[in-house]
Design goal:
Helix content: under 10%
CATH class of the largest domain: Mainly Beta
Distance between the termini: 28 Å
Largest sheet: 8 strands, antiparallel, barrel
Structural class: mainly beta
CATH architecture of the largest domain: Beta Barrel
Number of domains: 2
Number of helices: 4
Oligomer: single chain
Strand content: over 45%
Order of helices and strands: HHEEEEEEEEEEEEHEH
Strand order of the largest sheet: 1-2-5-6-7-10-11-13
Shape: elongated
């Protein structure tokens, strides 16, 4: 579905150009989009820890639209004094017979002139979209209780992207970003087990911060390949457990279940970005 949407988007670029030229706020700062997938690594036995040696990494995907850049410098007007000098020889009548003529030199200064130095674009962009992962797995066995479960997680995502910055001097095809974002994620209808008891649990929505370092390559006009590494942390402080039939569990079973759940994962990302101005030739 995502591939079909992108192909249709590119095919309609000439027709859409006039539409983008006429849009107003809040889409005036729309600069492109970003589609990506990632492999996530976590410690199944201790999901709150950073861990990159997972034998069964899970897959995550997402998309975002980009607004910006913001924070650029304004245009600068530079004024210069343009000086023009003219010399006029004005013969003066001699004061006495046989005296030499008196010559006069006149200097004329012209009007002021100016030109504009255009400011650079900003280096802060806003990315908003959605991310989804189908395989978060936990296997808790400690003083907080026991829980073994694999469940999907998805939700709204937004981030600030700082860049692009040149990757190294002399190459305009490579660049890098630092991104600081967060997703609003919820576990709903997740199935698991505690010892021999089957359970179902829901969580409240939680804010999941994520830090990313992304490298990019300008593969084609308006098309950029972007990859990198990111780390995400999710903390659900309130879990609501029931039986698979939605019936309340006994107090004995509830005492064996954790009251909170923390998930920390490291992701290897690879995606493709689109630049609106380059695609439409603005």
């Amino acid at each position: 579905m995502a591939t079909t949407t992108v192909v249709a988007f590119l095919a309609c670029a000439p027709a859409a150009r006039a539409q983008f030229n006429s849009v107003g706020p809040p889409f005036a700062k729309l600069t492109g989009g970003y589609l990506w997938g990632s492999l996530g690594y976590r410690d199944v036995e201790h999901p709150e820890r950073f861990y990159v040696r997972d034998d069964q990494p899970f897959v995550r995907g997402g998309f975002a639209i980009l607004f910006g850049p913001f924070g650029g410098q304004p245009d600068t007007t530079v004024a210069l004094d343009s000086v023009r000098t003219t010399v006029e020889w004005i013969p003066g009548p001699p004061s006495t017979p046989g005296a030499m003529h008196i010559d006069t030199m006149r200097t004329v200064r012209a009007v002021r002139s100016h030109h504009t130095l255009p400011g650079r674009d900003g280096w802060v962009s806003i990315a908003t979209g959605y991310l989804y992962s189908g395989g978060y797995q936990v296997n808790l066995h400690d003083e907080r209780g026991t829980l073994s479960s694999t469940f999907p997680v998805g939700g709204f995502y937004a981030s600030l992207m700082f860049g692009p910055f040149p990757a190294w001097q002399g190459s305009r095809f490579f660049f890098w970003h630092v991104a600081l974002g967060a997703g609003v994620l919820q576990a709903k209808g997740a199935n698991g087990s505690s010892d021999s008891t089957l359970v179902r649990f829901d969580s409240e929505s939680a804010l999941a911060p994520e830090l990313s370092l992304l490298l990019g390559w300008r593969a084609h006009r308006g098309v950029r390949v972007i990859g990198g590494i990111s780390a995400q942390h999710i903390r659900w402080s309130s879990l609501h457990f029931t039986s698979p039939s939605e019936q309340p569990l006994s107090d004995e079973v509830l005492q064996q279940l954790p009251e909170s759940l923390r998930l920390t994962s490291v992701h290897l990302n690879l995606g493709i970005g689109f630049d609106v101005s380059d695609l439409f030739g603005r």
